[in-house]
Amino acid sequence: MSLPGIVPLAQAKGLKTQVYEALRELIGHMDIYGSRDPIRLDERALGEQLGVSRTPVREALSRLEQEGIVENIARRGAFVVRKSKDEILDIVDVWAALESMAARLATSRASDEEISRLRKNYSTFDGDGARAHIDEYSDTNIEFHQTIIRLGHSELITQMADQLFFHMRAIRASTIKDRDRVAQSVMDHSRIIEAIEERDAYRAEQLVRDHALELAKHIDRYVDYLD
After folding, report:
1. pLDDT band at 7 (very low <50, low <70, confident <90, very high)
2. What dotted CATH number matches 85-222?
3. Residue ranges of the domains in the chain?
């Protein structure tokens, strides 16, 4: 099994951490819900591609299992965890609460420079441009929501959101092309940026929460490929 995006690691003191971080990053960019087929992680192949033995790979997979990202199944191997539809809806609801609070906090905690960067980095697409470059916009969309979390400058919110990130990233990537959600996403982002620029805590919180909950509604109504 050859997986893109993996390069051999330097033999360093923090090798275990390097392997863990490399595998976490790899899984974070997988299209977890793009197929109904389970995603198996081959220890031997991963070790060969990273340039390490199977031992640190096995240890990294065990750590990822503790985080609920990987599941080790006896006599079958390690698989990326896929959530059910109900579980995904719960994740989106919790994310809505975390990100909306981060947006509220951002209106008072983010610096003018940070807010200016938000505008500069995430106002490059209009509806037509986003449709024409959907894969690029999908990545930008995901980065936008991560940035909102960071702008809240709450370590606890950031940690909690990180635990949900894999599945939020995957479900956003798999649904952004549905029913012209791109155009609505671009408009929503523009309004969110405007509210944060104006340091309007109530509006920023409401817009971010509603944006996430619209994703939940879409999943509930239209997504039929979750277990």
Report:
1. low
2. 1.20.120.530
3. 15-80, 85-222
